[in-house]
């Protein structure tokens, strides 16, 4: 959960500074915050996973394009691109018969609390993880489109609210639908 919350910090910094300072200052602060995120992630987790590398790469590319074109909307579409890419990965892995959440639990059982692992090792738990993989894939697609639209059309405050709180709602809705 720390890694997820940490990934919001550079974009929150961008939204705040872009509201009160110049675009260039906001972009520089975003890059600095991203470098700090990289250092912390390597220190805390030992390495960067593929999703983090993709997310960080998007920040650097879109910040560079934003600077070159002096267009703040380019950096603000980063969360939408990331969410849509993750949704495609979840949906394709599900369609290929390898639901990613089930595979993660099987591959990294040491990262799952024992009481949850016991549930996920049952046939019911595996069914939940399988359905949750496709449910999150679909909800991430919708959420990615909404966040991308918000980055293009809304001010920094509403974009940040949709980006941060929408993320938790995006996870909660498929879980509620699948469990009940």
Write the element-wise H/E pattern from the N-terminal end onward.
HHHHHHHHH
Instruction: Say how many strands there are.
Output: 0
Strand content: under 5%
Oligomeric state of shown chains: single chain
Helix content: over 70%
Mean pLDDT over the full residue set: 88
Q: If helices are DSSP runs of H or I spanning 4 or more residues, what is the number of helices?
A: 9
Low-confidence stretches: none
Structural class per helix/strand content? Answer: mainly alpha
End-to-end distance:
24 Å
Please give the radius of gyration in angstroms.
Answer: 17 Å
How does the overall form come out from the CA principal axes?
Answer: globular
Largest sheet: none
Please provide a written account of the structure.
This protein has 180 residues and is an all-alpha fold. It contains 9 helices and no strands. The protein is globular, with a radius of gyration of 17 Å. It starts with a helix and ends with a helix.
Task: Compile the SSE list and pairings.
Layout (H helix, E strand, L loop, with lengths): L1 H19 L2 H23 L4 H20 L3 H4 L1 H18 L4 H8 L6 H7 L2 H31 L2 H24 L1
Helix pairs in contact: 1-2, 1-9, 2-3, 3-5, 5-8, 8-9
Write a brief caption for the model.
The chain is an all-alpha fold and 180 residues long. The protein contains 9 helices and no strands.
Which descriptors would you attach to this protein?
180 residues; mainly alpha
